[in-house]
Amino acid sequence: MLIIKDISNLQSYLTAYQNRKYSIGFVPTMGALHKGHGELIKKSKNDNHKTIVSIFVNEKQFNSKEDFNSYPRNKGLDYDFCSDNDVDLLFEPSAEEIYNKDETILKNNNYNNILCDKYRKGHFDGVITVLNKFFSIVKSNKVYFGEKDFQQLKIIEKFIQEKYKFLEIVSVPTKRNEEGIAYSSRNEKLSKKQLQDFVSFHQKVENFLKSLENSFDIEIANQKAKDFIVEQDIEELDYFEFRNNDDLSFNGKVSESRLFYAIYKGKIRLIDNLKI
Ligand code: AMP
Fold it and tell me: Backbone phi, then psi, for 239, in 5-degree steps?
């Protein structure tokens, strides 16, 4: 496995791949790799001749310096993880390699003021700003994103339609552990007790979902969601609501929707989304 940190070196390998007419799959990540990332890598390996994974903790998408500084990082394990998963090339640039000193931040205009965009102002501006850089550097055929970050997936789909028509976006279902919670780098920061509480919350959410009829309107399901969530012992909650899969609106039946939530355990923000 190649580990590359600078753009010019990367470009010489990309040119060699292109000369051989290899198809390239790209998996952008922020590291602290887990089985969820592994699913994206597996899919890319299945679809393409070469798979490139990037690891870049993008400061521009964090709302606070504290959150950025405390984001889990484990370089050595990530190298082993990529190598064990037969990644061809790991791109791990520094912030200086990616950004100019006075970098212009792109503005996301899709799916604004709802879900995570409402509670993490500017977060998705940072996401599309870094992807704009990575897409123009890596120029892959396909790029892989997880449904775990569903609003992000929808925003990137629009961004690619608008700006990177050559690129095919592939979405990958959320990988969960045997207790049902989604693998996430942030889970590593939970104490044993916080993790147990989170698992038990998640299981109650799954039972709540089972109690709903497919034919309910999303609006009705949201009334029930409100009743359910006030009964739970949650330290802090950003949102807990059903939204339509296609346009993230409140229109349609619950069968066409997902339940989105963002809750806190201590300072750790946990998000997920579930189909009924
Ligand atoms: P991150 O490193 O958290 O920025 O995630 C990188 C990519 O992995 C994003 O496209 C995420 O949606 C995806 N991802 C994270 N967790 C999971 C999971 N449990 N299952 C599937 N994809 C995931």
Answer: -155, 155
Torsion of CA 120, 28, 151, 39, to 10 degrees: -130
Ligand 1 center to residue 254 CA distance, Å? 25
At 52, list the tokens: 């490139």
Question: Rounded to the nearest 5°, which phi and psi values hold at 53?
Answer: -115, 135
pLDDT at 75: 86
Residue 53: closest CA among 86, 21, 23, 97: 86
Q: Is 202 a catalytic residue?
A: no
pLDDT tens digits along 84-117 = 999 999 999 999 999 999 999 999 999 999 999 9
Q: Is residue 184 in contact with ligand 1, taking CB distance under 6 Å?
A: yes
* Beta pairing class for 257-265 and 268-275: antiparallel
Q: How far apart are CA 7 and CA 11, in angstroms?
A: 6
Q: Is 0.90 topped by the overall pTM?
A: yes
Are 261 and 194 in contact, with CB atoms under 8 Å apart? no
Q: Which residue of the set 37, 49, 123, 202 is catalytic?
A: 37
Ligand 1 close to Cβ of residue 92 (< 6 A):
no
Residue 202 has what pLDDT?
96
CA of 28 to the centre of ligand 1 (A): 9
Q: Is 56 near ligand 1, meaning CB less than 6 Å away?
A: no
Q: What's the CA-to-centroid distance between 215 and ligand 1, angstroms?
A: 31
Please list the ranges in the chain whose pLDDT falls under 70. none
